[in-house]
Each structure stands twice: as structure tokens, then as C-alpha cells.
């Protein structure tokens, strides 16, 4: 999902609206949040609908200051939680996976005297600490002095109050790409002031839900603030032709897994690689259906367990109570195995059953591995996937190529042969099935799979 947040500094002029409409056509965000619209809510609602966002909440400006608007496409399932002149708080509901997360579009008080009131507003909104929560917008404040260039020095007390609110709400400042500062004024070098006033904040539950998010500071031609473009799915799935299959160890805990593998293999035909592709496609469809039902199943099991715990302790109820507990434990084992595989460590076997720890470890590992941009041979930075792929390919082609002589006899002449004829005969011998099976069995089951996505645990 893409979310565009921007302090537009007024949408009362037709020219500004036209430019913004053109920008939205290029970016195609699913959700928009505009700050300082400087128009009445009825006019803003008409503008928002003309942009192609039929659903939304609009807050009127006070005279020629303020005004908020959030809009979303029909594909988004959104519920309003609360709003004011400083914020709009909504809940996103995941229809397919059952995931819920909060998004608060925020506009911090421009006046320093009212800034503390803004921070207390966010503290008051922090009423569901375990719900994934994102806050994005114009905070009208910086966290540290290095987030400002030019003008008078910012009061340390002001910045400390901002940081204190972030800590009280258990939030993190989101990493971003693009220009460092998000606001500036003054067109001459001696009066130019730049600050990072716009940002995204999120709690750990939101970061765990979207470990591969991308937040970009975009260039712009109007407004003194730059737009923020958040993509929650950045890096999770590549283009359709780059779909990657991975056999999940947790699938082996499903009663139907082995039967499904046998059914798919029996239904496949052709050479080995073709049959493996058929198997992987079928397993992915089977696993997708499992994921849709897992959260609902665990919720129903826990509700059933609560009902049985309060029911009369008959033999039948006690027997069903034990069975329900076992099923819940099995669902938890599946989740733990899922995250252990992603963390690629063996701590679960050593007694550590902290699923949250594995989740964070795996998520952090993915963040570190993500490549957001590369520098080509000319020193230019590129962020497009195809361009980065070309740079990486060319780099390794050049690395493993040589423009010099390939005559290495003079080097080899100084090396004494150590491979005997009998050793060479053994090395040239054809592989047999038992030898291959022994090699597979000796591999760590949860380590990296090959190109086919079928790790050693599958065999």
C-alpha cells in the first residue's frame, strides 16, 4: 500500500489542484493525507473526489490556516477512530490476512507555545499500545539540532519535549530515502533555513508488520514542504516475473502437507524441473489458503478454550479442553518454526521459545539485506530495480572477467601435483542416489535453500 503525506500549503488555487492531480496520477498512492489545505471541508471533499479518492475525512481550515484531509481508494477498508484540527486517526482492516493497523495523520502546532498540547494529544491517542501504529505528517518540530540548517538555534528544551513524547509512546523514527530536510524558506544563501519537520513515526508492532517499508522524501515544485511517500510493500514482492518460492518448515506441521506433496507430484508430468515447478506452484496455492484461515482458526480456538474453562467439568468437556490446548500449542509451534527459519538460527532447539525475539531478529536481518540504491561506474545513484540489477550484473561480470593473458602454465609449473590417478578416478565416478541422499541429510535443514526454494528440510 502506498500512502502520500504532504503539507500542501493551500489548495484554493486551480493551478495548484491541477499540479497535484498530475502528481497523484504518476505516484498512484492508495491513501492521501494533506495538511494545511486552507479550504472548507466541503470544498476539500470535492477536490479529494476529483482526485479519485471517493472515501475520506475532511477537516475545515480556520480562516486561511490549517485544514486536514485524508482519502483512500475503494480497495482500502478503513474505519475512522477520531479527528481534530491537529489529527485524523483511522484503522486499516486487512480483509485477506486479518491484520489491523492504525494510521494517524498529524499536524503539529505551528506555535511553540502550543507544541506541548500537540504532544499530549499523541500521548492520549496511545490507547492501544500493542496495535501496529503509524504516525505521519508535519510535526513542526525537530528531534535534534542537526536536523536544522540556518536561522536561530533551536531550544534544547523544545526538542527534548518532542523526544520525550516519542519515547512515552514507544515510537521509532522511520528511516527514509531522499533529501535530508523536508522544509525550507528563504531563497538567498544568507537567509535560507532548512529543517526536517515532516516524518514518519511507528511502534515496533508496525515495523514488524511491514519490515520492508520504504519512506521517501520526494522533490516538489510547489509548497515549502516536501511530500512523503510511504510504501508498506516495498521489497516484499518483486515484479510478477521475479516471484520467489520458498518451502516453509512450518508446513510440515500441517496434517495435509505430505498428502498435498504426493498429490501434486503424482499429477505432474514431464522432466524433473517441470514437475518441480508444478509442485511449487501447487504448494504455494495450498499454503495461501492455510494463511487465510490460520489467524481465524487460532482466534476461534482461544475463544473455545475460554468457554470450556468456564463450563461444567464433565469428562467430555475436560477431554475437549485438553484437545483444544494441544491444537493451540501446535499453532504456536508453527509460528515459532516459521520465524526460526527466517532467522536462520537454531536457538529454538536450545530452549528459547520467544517468538517475538525471532520475529525481530528475522525482520532486522531483512532490513539489513535490503538494497535501496546503488552507485554505478559513473558515480550516479540509482533506485530503480531494473537499473540496480544491471549494475550488479555488470559489476560481477567485470569482476570475474580478465582482459589480460589466460596463459597460466608458467604459474602451474611451480605447483607439485597432489591428486593421484586413483583419486582422480574416484572423483570422476558418477554420483549415485545414496550419495546424494547422504549429502542432503548432512545439511542443516533450515539454512538457505537453493534457487528452487526447496531447502534440505523438504527432503
Automatic annotation (TrEMBL):
InterPro entries in the record: Endo/exonu/phosph_ase_sf, Endo/exonuclease/phosphatase
Any one GO molecular-function label of the UniProt entry: catalytic activity
Gene3D superfamilies, A to Z: Endonuclease/exonuclease/phosphatase (3.60.10.10)
SUPFAM superfamilies given in the database record: DNase I-like
Occurrences of domain Endonuclease/exonuclease/phosphatase (ranges): 4-225
PANTHER family linked to this entry: BNAC02G09200D PROTEIN (PTHR33710), DUF4283 DOMAIN PROTEIN (PTHR33710:SF62)
UniProt name for this protein: Endonuclease/exonuclease/phosphatase domain-containing protein
Source organism of the structure: Hibiscus trionum (Flower of an hour)
